[in-house]
Amino acid sequence: MADYPPIRTAGIAHTAEIDEGLRAHMNKVYGTMSVGMVITAAAAWALSGLALSEMPTPYQIGGNTYLTELGVTLWTSPLKWVVMFLPLAMVFMFGAMINRLSAAGAQTFFYVFAAAMGVSISWIFAVFTGFSIIQVFLITAIAFAGLSLWGYTTKKDISGWGSFLIMGVIGLIVASLVNIWLQSPAIMFAVSMLGVLIFAGLTAYDTQKIKTDYLAHAAHGDQEWLAKSAIMGALNLYLDFINMFMFLLQLFGNRE
């Protein structure tokens, strides 16, 4: 009677375990990012500093919309510089502290950062109509979903994009800081166009990097590292979404 070789199931079982773990990891990333987005939206709306009836302040910004005392404090005092640059400082702090933080501490820091970002972008409710904010948000969500899905499923290695995209981000930051004083519409338009393209590329790049990092480390079984990796991945995708949204809003948002 013929002897048949044993069916090798160990490799198949291991692959299935990795696939299941990757799905759970990506769900953690997108779930954490989504909670951060909700916190940002709530903070931005709560601290928008607007009122729809006349207030005892000369700061009328259009129609029957006025700045509240909170809005005056946030946007017409030196505090605006703290509000503007705090999220950027927190990103650098997060990168420096991530190895010393626990997974729970990193997640808490991310949610605090999301709230700070909400305060930082709350001015959009004074500049753009509510309908255009919602419209651009939906456009950004659709574009982000498509780009992230492509980054996750593509067989093409796009890791080489990273250095060029990061250089582009640095260039955007420098140009934006310079334009605070120049106030050039042409520079703002160019920065916004390049910003959309750069963060679209980063969305696909970061998604693939999250996936490849998990596959490279899952076999070691370091759950603490994987948990912090998911939070860092959520932060990267969150920043991609927020920046793409803000640049699209500058390009297509209807102003008050």
Number of strands: 3
Q: Which segments are poorly predicted (pLDDT under 50) over 5 or more consecutive residues? A: 4-11
Average pLDDT over all residues: 85
Distance between the termini: 85 Å
What is the total domain count?
1
State the strand order across the main sheet: 1-3-2
Could you describe the 3D structure shown?
With 256 residues, the protein is mostly helical. The protein has one domain. Helix content is 76%, strand content 3%. It has 9 helices and 3 strands. The protein has helices at 10-46, 69-75, 79-97, 103-120, 124-127, 130-153, 161-182, 185-217, 223-252, and strands spanning 50-51, 60-62, 65-67. A 3-stranded antiparallel β-sheet has the order 1-3-2. The longest helix is centred in the N-terminal third of the chain and has 37 residues, at 10-46. It is globular, with a radius of gyration of 22 Å.
List keywords for this structure.
globular, mainly alpha, 3 strands, 3-stranded antiparallel β-sheet, 256 residues, 9 helices
Give the topology.
Layout: H1 10-46, E1 50-51, E2 60-62, E3 65-67, H2 69-75, H3 79-97, H4 103-120, H5 124-127, H6 130-153, H7 161-182, H8 185-217, H9 223-252
Antiparallel strand pairs: 1-3, 2-3
Task: Give a concise summary.
This protein has 256 residues and is mainly α. Helices cover 76% and strands 3% of the residues.
